[in-house]
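Q: what sequence does this backbone want?
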């Protein structure tokens, strides 16, 4: 009986443990077991969108490759830009070196040409002030001048008919007959746009009449390209523009540019070596006109408002006061003739 009393409680304990298991198995709620395969998720159809979004595709590869190419192109652009910047820096250094030699190889703005203190005549540019006008009129003129709209267009005044009316008087054997052209003149004026920009059409026409009156006289109606009586014309006091060995600075071109102190700065302004190569003024059709327009701007234009007589003094003052009366009369005659042709009055103070 002692052993039975010991076994019975033990049996009740086993029954208490086993009974829930037997009931669960009978109802089909047995706990699931975990296999090795269940450690890896196997997506079903409901996971399709998620799978598609998570997997890489060909379009992504193309886009990534495009971005890489863009980055490479941007890198190449940066390298090219850096190269251009280096080129610009080198160009600026070259310009500085050219400035030291005194001769400019890059195009320059003639409004900023260096003034020469050694020349006989005044080389300071005209400020073209209009003291005889009220403030509103002066402001209007200055505004139109800044816009480049003052005066009638030069090519409308210096027509082919006008140019030919001068050069037709040159003999058939004249060098100038084949050297001076209207086209070369108009090309040269592009480098001196202030020429023919006066306060009115009448003033513009008077300036052009004055210019061609002196050209006609100096060249014998566009016959001569060089001075007949050649000389060295070297002023050794003009040390800023020293004469080159063996070179002569006699008159050349439409206004017969003369003296080393004119050839030097003229060449600098127009990108040629006027001291070592003065002959180019008689060989290059456009440079010949540029040289004359340069001298006109520096020495003649500033005195235009004082009358035609002042322009004679600026070009060849030795003719004035009885120095060469026939020459003065010749210049005045052509000036009056051209003013009449252009339909403007010549004004006062014509002869010196």
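A:
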């Amino acid at each position: 009986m002692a052993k039975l009393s010991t076994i019975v409680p033990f049996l009740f304990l086993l029954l208490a443990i086993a009974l829930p298991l037997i009931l669960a198995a009978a109802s089909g709620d047995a706990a699931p077991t975990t296999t090795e395969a269940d450690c890896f998720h196997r997506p079903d159809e409901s996971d399709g969108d998620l799978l598609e979004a998570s997997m890489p595709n060909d379009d992504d590869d193309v886009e990534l490759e495009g971005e890489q190419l863009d980055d490479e192109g941007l890198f190449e652009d940066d390298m090219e830009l850096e190269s251009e910047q280096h080129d610009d820096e080198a160009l600026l250094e070259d310009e500085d070196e050219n400035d030291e030699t005194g001769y400019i190889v890059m195009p320059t703005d003639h409004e900023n040409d260096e003034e020469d203190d050694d020349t006989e005549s005044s080389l300071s540019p005209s400020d073209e002030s209009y003291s005889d006008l009220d403030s509103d009129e002066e402001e209007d003129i200055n505004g139109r001048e800044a816009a480049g709209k003052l005066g009638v267009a030069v090519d409308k005044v210096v027509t082919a008919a006008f140019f030919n009316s001068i050069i037709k008087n040159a003999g058939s054997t004249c060098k100038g007959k084949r050297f001076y052209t209207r086209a070369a003149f108009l090309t040269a004026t592009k480098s001196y746009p202030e020429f023919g920009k006066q306060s009115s059409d009448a003033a513009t026409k008077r300036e052009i009449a004055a210019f061609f009156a002196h050209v006609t006289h100096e060249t014998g109606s566009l016959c001569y390209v060089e001075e007949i009586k050649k000389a060295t014309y070297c002023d050794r006091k003009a040390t800023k523009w020293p004469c080159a060995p063996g070179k002569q600075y006699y008159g050349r071109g439409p206004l017969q540019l003369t003296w080393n102190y004119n050839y030097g700065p003229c060449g600098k302004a127009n990108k040629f070596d006027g001291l070592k190569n003065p002959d180019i003024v008689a060989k290059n059709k456009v440079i010949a006109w540029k040289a004359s327009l340069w001298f006109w701007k520096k020495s003649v234009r500033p005195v235009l408002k004082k009358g035609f007589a002042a322009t004679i003094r600026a070009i060849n003052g030795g003719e004035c006061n009885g120095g060469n009366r026939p020459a003065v009369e010749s210049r005045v005659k052509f000036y009056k003739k051209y003013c009449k042709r252009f339909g403007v009055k010549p004004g006062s103070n014509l002869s010196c």
